[in-house]
Each structure stands twice: as structure tokens, then as C-alpha cells.
């Protein structure tokens, strides 16, 4: 039986790559005050970041409802396909738990045709697992085949990005006002990595040029000796600034096709526009 790969909107590849690979999406919710919008359906990433820059208060996000997941599952099952859902890490969102509840609402036979998979990642890094799964599905892999393969790859998926400003993360309460003002005054660019569900600061760059250099150094370190590499570039309304990533990585891995994925709105709400980064998955023998 054919397998359909599905993601929440945080883990979705670019629209072009998703259409090419037949990957479907269940949108999370974005809240601007009382207004509730479906991510990537009612509002796209460019519009989101433009609104974020103009908003006095930070927007918030929430998981899709159980009904939204059950409707998506039922539609796919009724087409005669099995469902493999990839969600944002459960360490940052309750989307995974909501999806499990949706699966549990089906009878035993249909529930057995649904896998809910915690990516332990987010954004463009999680989308690489979705593309891997979709390639396997196209080749005739079963739910179990895909689950086993993605479980093995999951520890080797990473997101590394640069925050352009500390203003938004200061609003969220993640850093103090004095630290944020000092960071912006001295043009400090915090570098954040997300690996196995855990976000952490891994460096502070003095300006964008140094940030790009530090991110590429981390990429080179992680992928050295890798037999297989997947890459997605990500940005928050800053596409012109990712060219150095594309040039350097293309020189290292000329056969690797890089997807271009907007930075996930759920994280961007606290990080702001101007983010640039590299997401990658690597396998070593």
C-alpha cells in the first residue's frame, strides 16, 4: 500500500519541493491578537514577517486541532494510502501529542495505517526528513521501512541559524533588556543551533560576515566524511543574504540540491526577520 508523507507547517519543505515529492501539510495556527490564521494557508512567510516587524506585540502560535489532524488522516486513508506524519519536536510544541490523540480516535485497523513521528527537529531541518521519507515512499517503502530509516537519521539532523537582532527575543523574555540593547548596539549576532530537539546558543558573531563564516565552519565539521548529505537553506525575509551559504556548500558538495525554505513562523515569532541559516542531514558509514 502506498505511503503518503505529511508534515505540520513547521516541518514543511518549500512549496515547490513539496509539490514535486507529493508531501502534504497540516497547518499550525498563528495568532495576531484575536485573529487566528492557518500558517501557509491564510498567511505566507513573507507576509508573516512583514506583519511581525510592524506589530507592537509578538504573535503567538498553537498546534492544529485534533479535528484538523483527523480530517487530514481520513482523507488520505480513504484514498487507499497509509499516513506517515512528521511533526515538530515535542520539546518545543504539543503538536506531536495532539496528532497522537487524533490517531487514537481511529479504530485499530485504520490507526495501524498511521505513523506519527516526532522529528526532534523543526523548520527546514525537519523538512529534510520529510523529503527522505517521500523518496522512500515513491520507491515503494512501507510505513515501517520509513520509520526505521528516519529514526536512524534523526540524530544527524541539525539547524544552525543567525539571529539578526535581539529585539524580538528580548520582547519574548528570553534575554534581558540590557543584554538585548547591548547586543544590538555592538552588532552582536547570536548563533543558535537545534539538535535532537534541544535549542542552544553556540556562538556570537560580530556582524553578518563572521556569522556566515562560523555557521559554515560548523557545517564543515559535522559533514566531514559524510556519505550522504541533504541541505536546506533558510531565511526570514533575507533571501539575498544566503548566497554565501549556497556558493560554499555547492563547492563542497556539487551534487547536493539545496531546498530554500522560509524560516518557520513558530520560531520566527520570537526571533524576528533577518534570520539566515543552514539546515542539514548527514549520514556516515
Structural class: alpha/beta
What is the alpha-carbon Rg in Å? 19 Å
Order of helices and strands: EHEEEHEHEHHEHHEHHEEHEHEHE
CATH topology of the largest domain: Rossmann fold
Share of residues in strands: 25-35%
**Major pleated sheet:** 6 strands, mixed
Number of helices: 12
Describe what is shown at a glance.
The protein is α/β, with parallel strands linked by helices and 285 residues long. The protein contains twelve helices and 13 strands. The chain has two domains: 3-154, Rossmann fold, CATH 3.40.50.10170; 156-283, 2-Layer Sandwich (Hypothetical Protein Tm841, Chain: A,domain 3), CATH 3.30.1180.
Question: What is the element layout, followed by pairings?
Answer:
Elements: E1 3-8, H1 15-21, E2 24-26, E3 29-32, E4 35-38, H2 45-54, E5 60-62, H3 66-78, E6 82-87, H4 95-104, H5 108-111, E7 114-118, H6 123-138, H7 143-153, E8 157-162, H8 167-171, H9 177-185, E9 188-195, E10 198-206, H10 208-223, E11 228-235, H11 243-252, E12 258-262, H12 265-271, E13 276-283
Parallel strand pairs: 1-2, 1-6, 6-7, 11-12
Antiparallel strand pairs: 3-4, 3-5, 8-9, 8-13, 9-10, 11-13
Write up this protein:
The protein is α/β, with parallel strands linked by helices and 285 residues long. The protein folds into two domains: 3-154, Rossmann fold (3-Layer(aba) Sandwich), CATH 3.40.50; 156-283, Hypothetical Protein Tm841, Chain: A,domain 3 (2-Layer Sandwich), CATH 3.30.1180. The chain is built from twelve helices and 13 strands. The strands form three sheets. Strands 10-9-8-13-11-12 form a six-stranded mixed β-sheet, with helices on both faces. Strands 2-1-6-7 form a four-stranded parallel β-sheet, with helices on both faces. Helix 3 (66-78) crosses helix 4 (95-104). The chain is globular, with a radius of gyration of 19 Å. The two termini are 30 Å apart. Residues 172-186 have low confidence and may be disordered.
Amino acid at each position: 500500500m502506498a505511503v503518503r508523507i505529511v508534515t505540520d507547517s513547521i516541518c514543511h519543505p518549500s512549496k515547490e519541493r513539496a509539490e514535486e515529492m507529493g508531501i502534504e501539510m497540516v497547518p499550525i495556527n498563528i495568532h495576531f491578537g484575536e485573529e487566528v490564521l492557518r500558517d501557509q494557508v491564510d498567511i505566507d512567510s513573507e507576509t508573516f514577517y512583514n506583519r511581525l516587524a510592524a506589530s507592537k506585540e509578538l504573535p503567538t502560535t498553537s498546534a492544529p486541532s485534533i479535528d484538523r489532524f483527523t480530517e487530514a488522516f481520513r482523507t488520505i486513508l480513504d484514498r487507499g494510502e497509509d499516513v506517515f506524519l512528521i511533526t515538530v519536536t515535542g520539546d518545543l510544541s504539543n503538536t506531536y501529542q495532539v496528532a497522537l490523540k487524533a490517531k487514537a480516535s481511529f479504530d485499530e485497523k485504520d490507526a495501524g495505517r498511521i505513523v506519527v513521528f516526532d522529528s526532534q527537529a523543526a523548520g527546514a531541518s525537519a523538512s529534510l526528513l520529510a523529503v527522505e521519507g517521500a523518496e522512500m515512499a515513491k520507491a515503494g517503502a512501507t510505513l515501517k521501512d520509513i520509520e526505521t530509516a528516519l529514526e536512524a537519521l534523526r540524530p544527524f539532523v541539525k539547524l544552525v541559524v543567525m539571529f539578526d537582532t535581539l529585539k524580538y527575543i528580548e520582547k519574548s523574555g528570553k534575554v534581558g533588556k540590557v543584554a538585548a540593547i547591548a547586543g544590538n548596539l555592538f552588532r552582536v549576532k547570536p548563533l543558535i543551533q537545534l539538535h535532537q530537539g534541544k535549542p542552544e546558543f553556540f556562538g556570537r558573531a560580530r556582524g553578518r560576515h563572521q556569522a556566515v563564516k562560523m555557521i559554515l565552519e560548523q557545517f564543515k565539521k559535522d559533514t566531514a566524511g559524510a556519505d550522504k548529505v541533504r541541505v536546506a537553506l533558510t531565511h526570514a525575509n533575507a533571501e539575498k543574504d544566503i548566497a554565501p551559504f549556497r556558493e560554499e556548500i555547492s563547492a563542497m558538495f556539487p551534487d547536493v540540491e539545496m531546498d530554500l525554505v522560509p524560516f518557520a513562523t513558530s520560531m520566527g515569532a520570537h526571533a524576528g526577520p533577518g534570520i539566515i541559516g543552514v539546515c542539514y542531514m548527514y549520514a556516515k558509514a
